[in-house]
Design a protein that fits this description.
Strand content: 25-35%
Radius of gyration: 16 Å
Distance between the termini: 38 Å
Helix content: 10-25%
Shape: globular
Length: 179
């Protein structure tokens, strides 16, 4: 049950869940709570799932958290990215997540593209991309969920064996691909 005080009452979690208190943490699944901001908490995770966490991250903030992790294998994000106010000055290089094999992300299209455009995922085996946007079901419209350099950040798109695309009412699209 969603109560207005639910998020406020979990703000303490970010202070309690620290790298010092949980040095062997490998799997983290947080939904509707305040996510920790300390990059060290994310450094050794093999699996990370964040859903609808309060105080979302800008793309830059979340990429800063991810770039300290070289062992992450599974990443699931649902509506945790917030619009970056100034995207004109952020020309950061791609970050590589060398062991990531599964990515599931559901975001608004602007946040989704901004995030995916900065990733390089060479070992990705399965990807689920869900986006809310206004687009057409024509091929150009589907590109609203895949960065222009999709082959660079999502090499799986060049090696997929199976794919499914679902579009509804011109406002929602899902792309699922796997080897």
């Amino acid at each position: 049950q969603d109560r207005p005080d639910t998020v406020a009452s979990t703000a303490w979690l970010a202070d309690v869940l620290t790298a010092d208190r949980s040095p062997h943490l490998q799997k983290l699944n947080l939904t509707r709570v305040t996510a920790p901001r300390d990059p060290a908490v994310y450094a050794h995770l093999r699996s990370l799932a964040l859903g609808c966490c309060s105080r979302g991250f800008t793309t830059d903030q979340f990429l800063d958290l991810l770039c300290v992790n070289t062992v992450l294998e599974n990443l699931s994000l649902q509506f945790i990215l917030v619009k970056q106010l100034d995207t004109h000055g952020t020309h950061r290089p791609h970050i590589t997540l060398p062991n990531l094999t599964r990515l599931k992300i559901r975001e608004n299209a602007d946040n989704l593209l901004d995030f995916l455009a900065h990733l390089h995922l060479p070992r990705l085996e399965k990807v689920d991309i869900h986006g809310n946007t206004t687009f057409s079901t024509e091929p150009d419209g589907l590109q609203a969920l895949v960065p222009a350099d999709g082959a660079v950040c999502l090499p799986i798109l060049g090696h997929i064996i199976q794919a499914a695309v679902f579009c509804a009412s011109g406002t929602y699209c899902m792309i699922r691909a796997w080897k």
